[in-house]
TrEMBL record, chain A:
Bilayer topology: Multi-pass membrane protein
Keywords: ATP-binding, Membrane, Nucleotide-binding, Transmembrane, Transmembrane helix
Domain named ABC transmembrane type-1: residues: 106-274
SMART domains documented for this protein: AAA
Protein name, as recorded: Unannotated protein
Source organism (scientific name): freshwater metagenome
GO cellular component: membrane
Entry annotated with the keyword Amino-acid biosynthesis: no
One GO MF term: ATP hydrolysis activity
Compartments in which it is found: Membrane
From TrEMBL, chain B:
GO molecular function, a single term: ATP hydrolysis activity
Residues passing through the membrane, by range: 61-79, 136-162, 174-192
Signal peptide (residue range): none
Coiled-coil ranges from the UniProt annotation: none
Gene3D superfamilies referenced in this protein's UniProt entry, alphabetically: ABC transporter type 1, transmembrane domain, P-loop containing nucleotide triphosphate hydrolases
Source organism: freshwater metagenome
Protein name: Unannotated protein
Any single Gene Ontology cellular-component annotation: ATP-binding cassette (ABC) transporter complex
UniProt KW keywords: ATP-binding, Membrane, Nucleotide-binding, Transmembrane, Transmembrane helix, Transport
């Protein structure tokens, strides 16, 4: 990473110097044309244009290459993280990787802005000390405004985000109920509700944009005013014959160029922050410490909570227990399961676990490339007849399951329900002591549900921990934990 | 071309008032003009003033342009502010209409082969897509049109200023004509690349999704295997091909856009060089007026750089919008009837349940059959929520002659898993309908709370189901279709529910497994009977 940021800085310095030179050539070209020195003036302008073009091309190509290199390294890192068993949040990782990638170019902008300030020396020389001082003073004065604009944008974006989330949840609820609304003949009523929510959100959004823009525009205003004042200074010098047209134009165009560079850097405020946070997220993916429990308990939870629920979960799970966790969707059932088995740190409270191996069955259970036997017997070799017995116990019969040597090339060969049952089979064949089931009952029809429940009932020593939304496998749980929304 | 037509249709469907659009266009054009004026007009003005022969007072020669420049600089940011605010207001107004469109459309989705989790994903994705469609106005239409208009006006102003300065010079019409032609050509070529842009966006999104899914799957598998304590899990992971492919697709698309950028910059740069060459060649440069023409060439041509950049970003946003719209339009399983654009028949007939089920009004009919025999689908079909159902119903033509509105008036339907809007009780039960029976006695009969602050969406499963029954029954339909009304209820709750249901005058058609409920019904018909 160090090498690429050094390269970015050098790129910023060199390209800015070239662009400043081009601006000066352009200015003197125009001045020469006005003094009827056509050949030289014309050549200067053409060289300036070509210089700009080549610089833009080199910068874009180099940044692209850098971005590609960083993306490759981030990808490899990401891949290592995903392989780790602590179940990192893939969506967070993915967006972190994207922001790291998008962060390429920020250093270029910074060094370019810094270098462009060197342009103040020729401004001083050609436009007089007053021009340089006025410009520098106004740019410096706008720095607190830049910072304020960044903060205002952040705050308003937080407000807008929460409002947008509210609108999204209203919409989601309404859309979810649209089948019912149609059967009741109230489609119009429901869409009017959405329209009202949408208008309310538009109002807040506009307000947020107004605040953010108001702040940002002050800085733009100062930039514009700085250029205007410099033009005024050199203009009056020109008028009194203290300065030539060439020098006046040089000062003016340089000031415009410097202002553009500084602004580009300041506008990358969020990109800068995002990239820094992305790096942070990618580097600190901590594994929650797991405290080993003692005694016959497989799992001991003490006042464990998750952020979206206010329920304190205190429980001891022993062999043969059947624990059911219920609650509305989004209340954090999956998070609670992850916290209980030590895949993530609980929001508060402690959880200790001795149970290993643990079976983890989720709605999107995966298979890897290999034979069906490889996929099922991950822990130890098992007799074919035993494997088939478990499979048929779970209702997985027929040609697609009888040949254990067939190669699984893609998980989508099996339906979601079948994959969930294969995951249960994999767990049972690995002699798990605790089976964690994360809301898969919805994937089964009634008959399959009974089959699976019966198969689990045969394993009386097995502890089962199931999270369920509306359908459930555990018919008669020994303990039911109901999560309530915070 | 079809992609542009698609965008145009969507813009029309956004139903934004012409005034809002014009106001936004005006604001953006003026902001663009002020930017042009500051970057191009300011140096031009300085030069012109310097060479101006008619003003005797030198103070005037400089002071006038300086004051103009100063004003421009001061007004630029408020103008830009107005521009953005108007554009956003327009975007939000359009998005509201599209949200309503989505809401109506989702009502026709059947979600039959969609699992519960992916249903939520589907809806969430659609909601997000609609949010992004603001760009159709914000980043495509308004910038494209406004930039073109402001370009033309800027050219006009430059020509006008120079014509006053240097009467009799012949170079301008030729030069301006060429410039316009080139700009127009670039516009047409660029915009004809929309399909290419759409393809690139499509490839990118698909690749991203595949890559992300792969990453996600691996994370799931890693968790599962490590909890099982399976050693050597590394051997089960092969190379992340999809993710790799995504990154490569991203890089390829980026290169394509970079080429477009380069091509545009080259055209613009060449214009500056060629324009000044032409001007120099064509006109004998002996006077100050000639120099003015050359300056005109250089400055006007350098306007194109800005212009092309705006167009190119417009093209990219258009590509994104087209892919989003295509996704939205293709999403969801709608019935054949809606897909074909066939309108609902409007013929009004007297509604008579007797003809449909060959029974007396007020009968209680149980429809039975083993799990998975299609009872629910059949019932949804009868309620005309599923196109497959209509053919399964004896005398189905009869129901089909009703318009959607009449059908809903006469037929009530309560699913196994009812959904609510998430508001308070009165709104949930009345839903803006008129001519309803009083809901309080009904709710009381079902043993439900009538406290208006109750939110049915937050009630227990059994209560939710009973509130859904009340919601359907307050409209007093003649035919009430109930999908497994007693599934998952305790014994007391079941008795209460049956008692309240039996008090209704409506004909009840109930799909069920419940032996108690079947015993209470007048007749039990196997679902197979209804299949043709």
């Amino acid at each position: 990473m160090n090498r690429s940021s050094r390269l970015e800085s050098i790129l910023g310095i060199v390209s800015t110097l070239v662009v400043l030179l081009a601006a000066m050539l352009f200015a003197s070209g125009i001045a020469e044309l006005f003094s009827d020195i056509h050949q030289t003036g014309f050549a200067s302008i053409q060289i300036a244009v070509v210089l700009r073009l080549v610089t833009a091309w080199v910068v874009s190509a180099t940044l692209h290459r850098l971005r590609h290199g960083i993306a490759r390294r981030t990808r490899e890192h990401l891949w290592q993280l995903v392989r780790r068993p602590n179940g990192p949040d893939v969506a967070v990782l993915d967006s972190a990787a994207t922001s790291v990638r998008d962060g390429v170019g920020v250093r270029y902008l910074a060094s370019s802005a810094a270098t462009s300030l060197l342009g103040l020396i020729p401004v001083w020389y050609f436009g007089g000390w007053l021009s340089a001082v006025i410009f520098l003073a106004l740019i410096a004065a706008s720095i607190p405004f830049y910072i304020r604009a960044g903060r205002a944008a952040e705050q308003s974006s937080a407000a807008v985000a929460s409002r947008t989330a509210l609108l999204a949840s209203t919409q989601l609820r309404t859309l979810d109920a649209m089948g019912d609304m149609r059967s009741l003949g109230t489609i119009e009523y429901a869409s009017e509700r959405v329209a009202t929510a949408s208008r309310a959100s538009a109002h807040t959004n506009l307000e947020g944009i107004r605040v953010a823009m108001g702040s940002a525009l002050i800085t733009e205003f100062i930039g514009g005013a700085a250029i205007g004042l410099v033009a005024m200074v050199v203009g009056f010098d020109l008028l009194h014959g203290r300065r030539s047209l060439e020098h006046s134009l040089l000062a003016l165009l340089l000031v415009v160029e410097i202002n553009a560079r500084v602004r580009a850097w300041a506008n990358a405020f969020h990109q800068r922050e995002d990239a820094a946070q992305g790096v942070l997220r990618l580097t600190e993916q901590s594994i929650a410490p797991v405290t080993p429990a003692v005694g016959p308990a497989l799992l001991t939870a003490s006042e464990v909570t998750v952020p979206s629920s206010r329920t304190l979960v205190t429980t001891v799970i022993q062999a043969g227990d059947r624990v059911l966790i219920t609650g509305p969707s989004g209340v954090g059932k999956t998070q609670l399961l992850r916290a209980l088995v030590g895949l993530r740190a609980p929001f508060s409270g402690t959880s200790a676990i001795t149970a290993r191996p643990i079976g983890w069955v989720q709605a999107d259970s995966q298979l890897f490339t290999g034979t069906l036997r490889d996929n099922l017997c991950v822990k130890r070799p098992v007799e074919t007849s035993d494997v088939l017995a478990v499979l048929s116990g779970l209702g997985l019969t027929g040609a697609r399951f009888s040949d254990l040597e067939q190669v699984v090339t893609s998980a989508s060969q099996y339906s979601d329900g079948e994959r969930a049952r294969l995951a249960i089979a994999r767990a049972l064949l690995a002699d798990v002591v605790l089976l964690v089931i994360d809301d898969v009952a919805g994937l089964f029809d009634q008959e399959t549900l009974h089959t699976v429940a019966n198969e689990l009932a045969r394993h009386s020593d097995l502890a089962v921990l199931e999270a369920a939304h509306n359908r459930r496998i555990l018919g008669a749980p020994t303990l039911e934990i109901s999560l309530e929304r915070a | 071309m079809s992609s542009w037509r698609l965008l145009l249709n969507w813009m029309k469907s956004s139903g934004v008032s012409r005034r809002t659009i014009l106001r936004s266009l005006l604001a953006t054009t003026v902001a663009q003009l002020s930017a042009n004026a500051l970057s191009i007009g300011a140096p031009l003005l300085l030069c012109l003033a310097w060479t101006q022969q008619h003003w005797d007072n030198p103070l005037q020669r400089i002071a006038v342009p300086l004051v103009i420049i100063e004003l421009l600089a001061f007004f630029r940011s408020p103008l830009r502010y107005l521009d953005r605010m108007h554009a956003h207001r327009l975007g939000f107004a359009a998005v509201t209409q599209w949200r309503v469109w989505l809401t109506r459309r989702v009502a026709t989705w059947s979600f039959r082969s969609t699992a519960n989790t992916s249903r939520a994903d589907l809806l969430q994705q659609s909601i997000g897509d609609i949010d992004h469609l603001q760009d159709v106005w914000l980043r495509v239409t308004i910038p494209l049109v406004a930039s073109m208009v402001s370009f033309l006006i800027s050219l006009g102003i430059i020509v006008e200023v120079l014509a006053r300065q240097s009467a009799g010079v012949q170079g301008e019409p030729l030069f301006i004509g060429t410039l316009l032609l080139v700009a127009l050509l670039v516009f047409v070529i660029l915009m004809s690349q929309l399909n290419r842009a759409v393809r690139s966006v499509r490839v990118l999104r698909q690749a991203h999704q595949k890559g992300f899914e792969e990453l996600f799957d691996r994370a799931q598998l890693a968790t599962e295997l490590s909890l099982l304590g399976a050693a050597a899990q590394d051997q089960h992971f092969d190379q992340p091909q999809q993710y790799e492919a995504w990154q490569q697709a991203q890089s390829r698309v980026e290169i394509w856009w970079r080429r477009v950028d380069l091509a545009l910059a080259t055209v613009s740069g060449t214009l500056v060089v060629v324009a000044s060459s032409v001007a120099i060649k064509d006109i004998a440069f002996t006077s100050t007026e000639t120099s003015n023409t050359i300056v005109l060439g250089v400055l006007a041509a350098s306007l194109t750089g800005e212009l092309f950049a705006i167009w190119r970003h417009g093209l990219q946003a258009a590509g994104n919008a087209v892919v989003t719209i295509e996704g939205l339009e293709a999403r969801g399983e709608t019935s054949a009837r809606e897909r074909g654009g066939e309108s609902w028949p409007t013929k009004v007939t007297e509604f008579n349940v007797q003809d449909i089920f060959a029974c007396t009004p007020g009968s209680r009919i149980a429809v039975v059959g083993p799990s998975g025999s299609g009872k629910s689908t059949w019932l949804r079909g009868v309620a005309n929520l599923e196109h497959a159902g209509a053919t399964m119903l004896a005398n189905s033509t009869y129901l089909n002659t009703l318009s959607e509105n009449e059908l809903r008036q006469h037929v009530g339907y309560v699913p196994t898993e009812p959904h609510f809007l998430g508001t308070t009780l009165v709104d949930e039960l009345t839903l803006g309908r008129t001519n309803l029976a009083p809901w309080v006695p009904l709710a009381t009969a079902f043993g439900l709370s009538t406290d208006p602050s109750v939110r049915p969406s937050e009630c227990s499963r059994g209560e939710r189901h009973r509130y859904a029954l009340v919601r359907a029954m307050v409209a007093e339909p003649e035919l009430l279709l109930l999908d497994e009304p007693t599934a998952g209820l305790g014994n007391d709750e079941r008795q209460l529910l049956i008692r309240a249901l039996w008090a209704s005058k409506a004909t009840l058609v109930i799909t069920t497994h419940d032996p108690d409920l079947i015993a209470k019904c007048d007749v039990a018909i196997p679902v197979e009977t209804f299949r043709g």
